[in-house]
Design goal:
Jelly Rolls, Immunoglobulin-like, 7 domains, ConA-like_dom_sf, DUF6701, DUF6701 domain-containing protein
């Protein structure tokens, strides 16, 4: 049975004690043991528990463990064996194992934007490449910790990964499933993954799910993915518009979600499907994700719920990361009577030091000669056999990935290629060969002591481009006079020294270091000033043109001295003058690396792993005290010429003016640290991309109408100044001094092309933090100078006057045109809502009647219907102050004033609606009536006056002088008793007052 898989079934009867063992479907043995239930609980898999001693452990592999609650017959055993042998479940059900088309576990040490750097663990070689450089593998807090676990994960902050072309099914109705772990950082409007064709997973405005179209989302609340790691399985269905998206399915933490259309936009019928270009951490280079992701798998077709749970629980061993290569540094020229020093550094794929390396390397001269000793490092060096060229060194954590060694090579003139390697990694051979000679120049940063301290370790350090530095030379070797090894003091006088530049990284260059010439030596030593006006890693070779004696410096880095920034088209304005660019709109930035002479350093960006630049906001110039905002796509630079790197996709999220600063993209120029450039001049002024009109509402003063000039119309709206991404720009604030827009109002009736907006009166507000919020419950629409028929369903609108000619994002009306402005694309304003306006008045005619009956008075509101004034039966809202009503000379603001003394009797005014302060109307009628005073009265009549001061919407030009303003009251109305209507046969009856 050893070395092969076998099918085992064990049965035990608690009543008979019979114990049977089946192997590969056949009974192998059967014995009778103890009866009764097993009293101990199930302990473990893979060992036998021994409470009296040590447990016994199983060595091998186990799979498909099943426990049944009854005894299985020999027939059942055979059936189960045959089913599982055929790859089915034990009961014969078909099963499918989830096998990914591609899977990315992000177990690499680092990424730098090179092809195939993100490994496909699925074995199909769909490796990926990082874009925008804003993502890296991390291992601090994985989704499933431990070993096994989920190990490394990808941390995204604006970058994204694109695998090699995937062979996915793009036919209508075909399904593709993507599974992954995610830990979202809460950033709004991002896409964890997708295909860049509005067929993505999207997180926006508190929602998470599938895009249905541009702006639409079909999914669940984003609260389901907040607060830590969550496992996601997303099933995409190819098809047209929402009809296809509605077939998509989503699992979160193994639970299928109920999806709904959370962000509705007008539906389209565009065909959307997966395609060969898959974006991890983005939706086609936009909506870039911020947060962590891991274990991304792509599957052709659907997965079952159980398969998804299995994938969620999957783990794998977390292998220790290894360096990409070892870097050796030496000066390429050596004297065989002098120990040669060199350093070995473990490097990552992005050329940074792999500081956690603790492996064992082999040092090998590949010449079978040489002995090694340790110069710096806390690990263990073993040179077991003297002068065999081999040694091993074991790094420790405190070495931080780097150590230096001394090589004694006394075999005479030779060329040696030192090699360094461990079990999986070798050096990159970039150091070149090491030439041993009887004599040569020792080239150092400073003169040597005499006798010199050996090994000589005075390397030239990091330099600035365009700035002179000292190079010290010593003629070193075997003195021809005495045979001693050291400085050759007889080498003296003026020597013609040729200085050559060795380009190591980049490997070529157009500028050479300057220096050399006729150099005076004293007792074998001399110094001169060298200068390199470019950047990179170089070494300098010095040669005596007469004797050909030569020497070389160590490899050293020359950094740029500065970065200059040019923003294409920038006009540098602040609070005055023209604007530069809309907020959120891409603008172009050119950056040059400069030397200390303020000239370009052309080799910047030509490095083996090209260095680039990134931009940051140095300061907010205008408005003072505002929000500094964020700079997007700050590091997407491309080298467009020998001297210039360009980024055409930079954008700023706010409005105002800023200063920028450039620095090294990875903050570490060839391992020597960051260089920050001179701050730019003012860049701006950035202005809003557009204005968004929202929360708009118009409400009539009285349900479905408002009197012309009545100040009880309610209008509310919010204007938001937004960037190109639709986010509010908070610096658009009058309190900060930003030049803000004003509003113009419009009104049109039945699209007649006559803009009545000047008649609309509203309160004003102020722009604050990018918003103009207005809530006016006392707006009005003024009367015209003449009678006016009802303005039914008058459309009210708004436009924006901005110094940068920005407009509303959605324009739906043009009050100056009777065309369909949407079709003609001539709309100039946005809609606020509709209201209806009446030309109204208050009337109370004189009236009379007998003293024995109640006297009705027609106190009512009317409106002009285009032909005549008619009762406003819609008016249940108007109020007349009691203090404005005078009855028989008494102001009706106290209860006693309702009663009129008629000498011999009295009459009392009554109304439909009477409060302590006001008289109301029902259906346009106040219901005014006076009670019967009785036959004993001697005073027959009295006057009623109503003052309409401050209620001009109910006034009328009663005196017909063409001026309504001076008619501040209705004509006096006389109420008369003891008057009767005449006989029906009387043609004319006149009563003389």
């Amino acid at each position: 049975m050893i070395g092969n898989w076998h099918h085992i079934i064990l049965t035990r009867s608690s009543t008979s004690g019979q114990l049977s063992v089946y192997v590969d479907g056949s009974l192998q043995t059967s014995v009778t043991g103890e009866i009764g239930d097993v009293v101990r609980s199930f302990s473990s898999i893979g060992r036998i528990e021994d409470t009296a001693g040590s447990p016994e452990y199983f060595a091998g592999q186990l799979d498909e463990l099943l426990i049944f609650d009854s005894i299985i017959s020999s027939t059942d055993v055979q059936i189960i064996y045959e089913n599982q042998l055929q790859g089915r479940s034990w009961d014969g059900a078909l099963r499918t194992c989830a096998t990914p088309l591609a899977e990315w576990r992000f177990e690499e040490n680092s990424w730098n934007g090179t092809a195939d750097e993100v490994i496909d663990s699925g074995g199909n070689h769909y490796h990926g490449q990082l874009y925008a450089n804003n993502a890296s593998p991390q291992n601090v807090s994985p989704a499933i910790s431990g070993d096994s676990g989920t190990c490394n994960y990808a941390s995204f902050s604006g970058g994204w990964i694109v695998p090699n072309s995937l062979p996915l099914n793009m036919n209508n109705g075909a399904k593709t499933t993507v599974t992954f772990w995610m830990r979202w950082d809460g950033t709004n409007n991002v896409a964890p993954l997708g295909w860049g064709t509005s067929f993505d997973l999207w997180i926006n405005n508190g929602n998470f799910g599938f895009t249905t179209s541009v702006g639409g989302l079909y999914g669940v609340s984003a609260s389901t993915i907040s607060g830590g790691w969550h496992h996601i399985a997303a099933e995409f269905t190819n098809g047209y518009g929402l009809d296809a998206v509605s077939f998509n399915r989503l699992w979160i933490d193994g639970v299928e979600q109920v999806l709904s259309e959370l962000q509705y936009v007008p539906r389209d019928t565009v065909y959307r499907s997966v395609n060969s270009t898959f974006y991890i951490g983005s939706a086609g280079g936009a909506l870039n994700y911020n947060g962590d992701m891991d274990e991304v798998g792509v599957y052709n077709g659907s997965l079952s719920a159980s398969q998804i749970i299995t994938l969620m629980n999957n783990t794998h061993p977390c292998s220790s990361p290894a360096p990409s290569y070892f870097a050796i540094s030496h000066d390429n020229n050596a004297v065989y009577c002098l120990n040669e020093s060199m350093s070995v550094t473990a490097r990552d794929s992005d050329d940074t030091t792999f500081s956690t390396y603790t492996g064992t390397i082999t040092l090998d001269t590949q010449a079978g000669k040489g002995s090694w000793s340790l110069l710096t490092g806390s690990g263990t060096l073993l040179d077991s056999v003297a002068n065999d060229g081999l040694a091993t060194y074991t790094f420790v954590a405190s070495d931080n990935g780097s150590a230096s060694f001394s090589l004694n090579y006394s075999e005479g003139a030779a060329i040696v290629d030192v090699d360094v390697y461990d079990n999986a990694t070798r050096d990159d051979d970039s150091e070149g060969q090491l030439s041993f000679a009887a004599s040569g120049f020792s080239v150092t940063a400073s003169p040597l002591s005499n006798p010199p301290v050996t090994p000589i370790n005075q390397p030239i350090g990091t330099q600035l481009s365009g700035q002179a530095f000292t190079v010290a030379m010593a003629a070193y070797g075997t003195d021809p006079d005495n045979g001693n090894c050291g400085i050759i003091e007889t080498y003296t006088g003026n020597k013609s020294i040729v200085l050559d530049t060795h380009y190591n990284n980049p490997t070529t260059g157009t500028l050479s270091a300057t220096g050399g010439g006729t150099i005076p030596f004293i007792a074998g030593q001399a110094s001169f000033l060298a200068q390199y006006n470019d950047v990179g890693q170089i070494a300098l070779t010095v040669t005596d043109s007469a004797t050909s004696m030569t020497g070389q410096t160590n490899l050293f880095i020359v950094q740029p001295n500065d970065f200059s920034i040019t923003v294409v088209g920038n006009i540098g304005t602040t609070d005055a003058g023209s604007g530069f660019m809309a907020s959120g709109q891409a603008f172009t930035v050119d950056v040059q690396a400069l030397n200390a002479l303020n000239n370009p350093a052309p080799n910047y960006g030509n490095e083996i792993i090209p260095e680039s630049v990134t931009l940051s906001i140095d300061s907010l110039v205008f408005p003072a005290g505002g929000n500094i905002g964020t700079l997007d796509n700050a590091d997407s630079f491309t080298k467009i010429s020998s001297n210039t790197l360009q980024n055409t996709a930079v954008s700023w999220s706010e409005v105002g003016s800023i200063r920028l600063q450039a620095s090294v993209a990875d903050a570490d120029y060839l391992g020597t640290g960051n260089i920050t450039g001179t701050v730019s001049g003012t860049i701006g002024r950035f202005y809003p991309d557009s204005f968004v009109l929202g929360s708009q509402q118009v409400m009539d003063a009285c349900v479905n109408f408002t009197y012309l000039s009545e100040p009880n119309l309610s209008i509310a709206y919010t204007l938001s100044a937004v960037n190109q991404g639709g986010n509010t720009v908070t610096n658009y604030d009058v309190g900060l001094g930003y030049p803000v827009a004003t509003q113009q109002y419009h009104a049109e009736l039945d699209n007649d092309g006559n803009d009545l907006g000047v008649r609309l009166s509203l309160a004003t507000s102020n722009w604050s933090a990018g918003e103009y919020i207005l809530l006016d419950n006392h707006a009005s629409f003024s009367r015209d100078s003449s009678l006016e028929a009802p303005l039914s369903s008058l459309l009210l609108g708004l436009s924006v006057q901005d110094i940068d000619n920005r407009n509303l994002s959605s324009l739906t009306m043009n009050a100056d045109s009777n065309d369909d402005c949407s079709l003609a694309e001539t709309c100039t304003a946005g809609e606020l809502g509709r209201a209806s306006f009446y030309y109204g008045r208050l009337t109370l005619p004189s009236t009379y009647g007998p003293e024995t009956a109640e006297l009705p008075a027609e106190l009512q509101t009317e409106y002009w219907d285009g032909q005549q004034f008619v009762l406003n039966s819609h008016d249940n809202c108007s109020l007349i102050p009691r203090a404005a009503i005078t009855v028989n000379g008494a102001v009706m603001n106290i209860p006693a004033a309702l009663t009129v003394d008629l000498q011999g009797g009295s009459t009392t005014a009554q109304f439909f609606v009477l409060t302590n302060d006001d008289v109301g109307f029902v259906g346009g009628n106040a219901g005014l009536r006076f009670s019967a005073p009785g036959t004993a009265i001697t005073t027959k009549s009295f006057d009623v006056d109503i003052d309409l001061t401050n209620r001009d919407w109910l006034t009328f030009d009663w005196d017909q002088d063409g001026n309504v303003i001076n008619d501040t009251a209705i004509p006096t109305a006389t109420m008369s008793f003891k008057m009767y209507r005449g006989h029906d046969r009387v043609l004319y009856w006149r009563h003389k007052y």
